[in-house]
Design a protein that fits this description.
Blueprint: H1 14-25, H2 31-41, H3 52-58, E1 65-68, E2 72-76, E3 84-90, H4 105-121, E4 128-130, E5 146-150
Antiparallel strand pairs: 1-2, 2-3, 3-5, 4-5
Helix pairs in contact: 1-2
Length: about 160
């Protein structure tokens, strides 16, 4: 089965990455099946047409937008991990921080600055900004984005 990729295994999206992660974590699946799921689905590259955030930016997917400019959009996370959980998403598709180059330094600084601005606009002077890079770090949508969390005490180290 490992030498054939089934048609059902599509490039990662928010939905099938969650499904693969759920199956990987499940103790009900034997290790061979977990390995097959990882091998079949894990390495498929995401394209802009598959990307949930690109769909939000283009309009087909809905989001609760709290801020936007010509470089980024800030939206409320649909699975909040804090009373305020916003995502600052660049309009340019970049899978992760690993794909950023020197030319992207200005954009990366802009994303962090906008994260601070939207936290302040939401009434917070204490907040956490996070960028997850790679599935092992918790990245589930492979379009670079900054999480801005506020409204509760944060612990260190983060879990």
């Amino acid at each position: 089965m490992l030498d054939q990729k089934p048609e059902a295994c599509q490039p990662p999206t928010a939905n099938n990455l969650f499904l693969v992660t759920t199956h990987k974590a499940s103790e009900n699946l034997n290790s061979e099946l977990r390995l097959e799921l990882q091998t079949l689905c894990y390495h498929a590259p995401m394209t802009e047409t598959d990307c949930l955030f690109c769909k939000i930016l283009a309009g087909p997917a809905a989001a609760d937008v709290v801020y936007q400019d010509n470089r980024c959009v800030a939206v409320r996370d649909i699975n909040p991990q804090a009373p305020t959980h916003l995502l600052v998403i660049p309009r340019e598709h970049m899978e992760s921080l690993d794909d950023a180059s020197q030319k992207d330094e200005s954009l990366l600084g802009h994303l962090l600055r906008i994260g601070a601005r939207v936290a302040n606009l939401q009434g917070h002077d204490s907040y956490r900004s996070v960028i997850n890079s790679g599935s092992g770090a918790g990245q589930s949508v492979f379009h670079l984005h900054v999480h801005v969390l506020a409204g509760r005490s944060m612990t260190w180290p983060p879990g």
